[in-house]
Amino acid sequence: MGNGRQDTGKRPAHLVWDWNGTLLDDNVAIIEATNAAFAELGLEPITLERYRDLYCVPIPRFYQRLIGRLPTDAEWLVMDAAFHQQYWARADACGLTEGAAELLAARRAAGLSQSLLSMAPHEHLVPIVRRHGITGHFVRVDGRTGPSHGSKAEHMVRHLTALRAADPEISGERTVVIGDAVDDAVAAAAVGAKAVLYTGGSHSRASLAAAGVPVVDSLAEAVTVAEELVG
Q1: CA dihedral of 32, 99, 173, 168, whole degrees rounded to 10
Q2: Which of 73, 78, 142, 151 falls 20 to 30 Å from 104 in CA-CA distance?
Q3: Tens digits of per-residue pLDDT, 21-73?
Q4: Mind spelling out the 3-state secondary structure of the chain?
Q5: CA distances (Å), 143 to each of 68, 159, 197, in order?
Q6: How far is CA 175 from CA 16, 27, 75, 84, 126, in A?
């Protein structure tokens, strides 16, 4: 009773949530910060639609898609610094995605495990998650450490390793990553996990479909599909 286990005796899914564009509704802040970074180099601003069509990681490759060439090392440093300065000036005004707080609380109340892994810098992530009052819903919260131009996969490996050290019953096979970017699916595959991608964030539905994993339009649907994937 109350431990979330199914009648079959199988352990339910462990969910690894993404933050930006998934739990946090920050599309406006992302676009404004991206355009501020572009302005540093005299580039024209972009729309949310164009951003969602072209977004990819590593971020320098995304900029290549937008401006037709890779930024130089010097340009990258300028743009990256401008983006982060402008984004974090706006992040506190962003709210959680509709229904996110309720989903997280219900899952915790049911005794089901979930964690948070983000490519946002760890030193920024932890305080903003705390300010939204949801830290206690996660068994672990990890942000990015190191450079901002890498992939999420290496961070996912460390995240799952730490989770398994605390709870050996957490396995890649019964872990589902819920995110808004193709990179979330790539990161899931790196640890043998499954992924569900949400259309409300950084990618268009067409871009997400290329990942070959389920694509959904709400976080509630994402949770339902995640449990089905490991059922």
Answers
A1: 100
A2: 151
A3: 999 999 999 999 999 999 998 999 999 999 999 988 888 888 899 889 999 99
A4: CCCCCCCCCCCCCEEEECCECCCEECHHHHHHHHHHHHHHCCCCCCCHHHHHHHCCCCHHHHHHHHHCCCCCHHHHHHHHHHHHHHHHHHHHHCEECCCHHHHHHHHHHCCCCEEEEEEEEHHHHHHHHHHCCCHHHCCCEEEECCCCCCCCHHHHHHHHHHHHHHCCCCCHHHEEEEECCHHHHHHHHHCCCEEEEECCCCCCHHHHHCCCCCEECCHHHHHHHHHHHHC
A5: 30, 10, 19
A6: 7, 27, 38, 30, 22
Among 4, 10, 53, 28, CA closest to 223: 4
* Separation CA 23–CA 104 (nearest Å): 10
The tens digit of pLDDT for each residue in 126-179 reads: 999 999 999 999 999 999 998 776 789 999 999 999 999 999 999 999 999 999
9: left (phi over 0), alpha (psi -120 to 50) or beta: left
The phi-psi region of residue 191 (left if phi > 0; otherwise alpha if psi is between -120 and 50; otherwise beta) is: alpha
Please, are residues 144 and 119 in contact by the beta-carbon 8 Å criterion? yes
